[in-house]
User: Fold this.
Amino acid sequence: MNVRASQHNNVVVQSLAQIGNCGLFLLTLLVAIPRSFRHVRETIRQLWFVGAMSLTIIMVCGLFIGMVLMLQLYNVLSIFGSTSASGMVVALAVYRELGPVVTALLFAGRAGTSITAEIGLMRATDQIDAMEMMAVDPIAYVATPRFLAGLIAMPLLCCVFCAMAIFGGHLVGVTWLGIDNGTFWSNMTAVVVVHTDIVNGVLFKSLVFGAVVSLIAVFQGFTTPPTSEGVAYATTRTVVASSIAILALDFVLTAFLM
Amino acid sequence: MTDTVRATPDDSTLVQIRGLTTVLNGKTIFDALDLDIPRGKVTAIMGPSGTGKTTLLKHITGQMRPDAGKIHVNGQNVPELSREQLYKLREGIGYLFQNSALLTDFDVFENVAFPLRQHTKLPEVLIRNLVLLKLQAVGLRGAARLMPNELSGGMARRVALARAIVFDPMLILYDEPFVGLDPVALNQVLKLIRTLNQTLGITSVLVAHELEAVKQVADHVFLIANGKVVAQGDPKTIANDGSPWTRQFFGGEADGPVPFQYPAGDYAQALGFAGAAK
Amino acid sequence: MSQQRSSYAVGTGLFIVLGFAALAYLATQTSSVANVHQGASYTVDAHFTNIGALKERAPVKIAGVRIGQVQSITLPPGQEVADVKLTIDKSYDRIPQDSVVTIFTSGLLGDQYVGIDYGSSQQFVANGGTLARTKSSQPLEEMLGKFFGAGGVSDNIGGTYTVKADFSNVGTLSVGAPVKMAGVAIGTVQTVVADPVKLDAKVTLAIDKRYNAIPDDSSAAVFTSGLIGSQYVAIQPGGSPDALKDGDEMVLTQSAMQLEDLIGKFLVNGSSSDTKSAGNGKSDIPPAGKH
Assistant:
């Protein structure tokens, strides 16, 4: 009994310590931003890896999300004879929730894990130490550029995701199910508000999610024991912690922005 | 080191360590260690596994801070340096990692060019010439466009060496440079260490186990065990100095001052015979 | 190597351009450009006695075209009118001072917005000025009532007199519901309270002073406008020579019919022999001692 209680205690304490360390690590990252300006090229390179390389999966998933959403909505809304509203509902659902959340989850799976694994392996093969020895600050050269790249890439990816979802919804709704093209767009433009839906929904949320996912990914990579087992474990933890953080934060942000 | 007890380093000593004490995870790695590394020579540090030879190198470069003691490198006390001063110092130190630690994102050329690009704003032509010069010195100019995963262990180590010397450092630290090399590659690395020392006058410190290789290249050997220097001297004669440490280490005996048994509790008790013994 | 670097840069640049193109697409193609907060604008005030469900950032429209948005809604302490600040695009700076500001609802269930109907004055409202002529938000019930033929409910609450009527069941009759005679609204329901002793509903009707010759034996009934419409009080004139006066009580009342009963009636084709219909349609004679 006692042992179990203390184990529980340990888990709680360890989780808190992880969160605390993560926060401190964020400070280190932010402090290193001015120093990482000389590594702009590295930031661009990372933007290529975490952003441009994630485009395919984001586009494909966005397309299918839009398509399936439209299909479902069409079936339900046809009961009420208001299928023309389905384009608008697709847009609102994607902008406010699905776009940022699904993009962030995909981003955690695609880019977050590769960041963690890459940094973990760099530590395992002494590359981080080698940078230290070459008088190159690994935080400014490795951590901050990846963090910034995630921060920049997420909103852009989310925009692409949303555009693809609208396109998918249009494809199914208008081309396939025969909703009137003009009604589809006019209903959508009537309800979508740039400030609340696109700026707050798409851009702000995905900016926060991008920061959280890349922070967790970089943090796990830098703090994991530099062994193959440690790297594997850290990669898993990146996905788990990111997913929980994304969904919890989504709730908080939604409540806060409303 | 009975002959040098001066607190300040003189010109003939590049690295001076005094009273170095390090405790890692409750285990004492160094216990008031004193050590001097002469300028312009090749110094070998040997010792049983786990005696903290790599840790010693990390202390010299400031990657780890000791619990007590002074480490003067070229007159500067490393543990007291700020981050900027430390980075400045490290630009004068080359470090060859056990596993080469090439940056896997870049090809051979970019790996060697990396320190130049990070610390200088040299024109591209100059960088190219410098890198090719260093690659030529290690005999790998033709491999400039290969990626690190396309290199053999010996080649990777030579590339890492080219990278370590790209700034013409005053000091190179070799961490186990001979491990895992075939005889040809081993001799190539040996030749490079000797050449670099003799032609450029670079002070070299190498951590190694291979006495035969060390004999060929080192001017001075320190044998470290139990956190102290237990023997030192000329590599050709040190094996015969008669101390139990050198006899065991260079003779390769399984048991001796370095125990075969890892420290453990009473054997009989562990097997449950404690009651019977009483 | 520099080629390698520039290929990253080009690819990343393409990615960024694509991202911003998607953003531009979202912002322009899927949302109305008019929803963007406009640049140069000026502010005017309008006071409403009831803003309904009007929210900040609700659109301000002229002739159905968006020209600005509601900036703030405040209720100044000590006043009973809401102060609504409207931000209007600078290019619409020639709004006559006697224009009427109305709170409308988009469709039956849509959001509320502010509509401006141009007046004829040559004076234009300036930045920080006030548009004095306003029409408040109309509750949905009222609108439904209108829709189902209630006609214009007279708003001039000054000239009314009140009569009382007791109903055993008022259904969903609410305060503000119209009182009609011959289908024309002549007043509104002022209060609906339950009588704690007689356990019926006491309804106060405010009737326009113009209609001061209603016979005092007229009956009052709670009717529903259409099937799903709101309920109203209908007065069926009697034959007495004396007219209802302020504070009088109407004796003959007919309570609200439940929708279920209505439908039941409808289905059995309203046969008069149906006991159910008779039971529901019976006049509700108030107990003696009322007067």
